[in-house]
Amino acid sequence: MAKIIRKPAPRKAAAPKKKAKAAVAKPKAPAKKSLKAMKPWTPAEIREVFTRFRAANPEPRGELEHVNPFTLLVAVVLSAQATDAGVNKATRALFEIADTPQKMLDLGEERLRDYIKTIGLYRTKAKNVIALSAKLLRDFGGEVPRTRAEIESLPGAGRKTANVVLNMAFGEHTMAVDTHVFRVGNRTGLAPGKTPLDVELGLEKVIPAEFMLHAHHWLILHGRYTCLARKPRCEVCLINDLCRWPEKTV
Hints:
This protein is mainly α.
């Protein structure tokens, strides 16, 4: 019987491999300069900044309304996590009847709450204002003390409160660092710091003494109306040519 020889089936030709697409390198975003890597401000530049602020606003004023050191202290305590405009709206009527620690105690916590209930955290703040009024009468003869440590010992008062009162009521060369000053100090590179205290000490170190009385007001107003948190108005900024912020728009 003859053998049946089967021929192997022809192999299919392998499909040609597709050429891999050449990887297209994406352009890298320019690295942001860290504030520490920026060119430091020179004393002449810092003097120029505050000379311009002074020329534009020779006598800046804080926007919290008050009639004496006690009402200023109360207004600053009430302004924590609140706007100056909101505090002023609440305190205009309050200060007409309670502009001393004794009058505030006579008013009482419950009635005080009625005056300030439009302000955030008003219950806690009312408690603090009554407590600080009592402490002023008990420990300081009813007068607002003139040292930072003594003011900080009052209920509801911290370092920023003390610096505002010392500066505005008693003409001390203090630097009150709120959210606006903190932002301006860091963004411009004038006094970069991780904490408000870092910025405070940095600004005190570099600002010439002749500008210190009004320096914190100029910086607060600059941060509130020009160097805004979300959309800074670089085009109208008095110091845009000196500012070190790498993302400024001019």
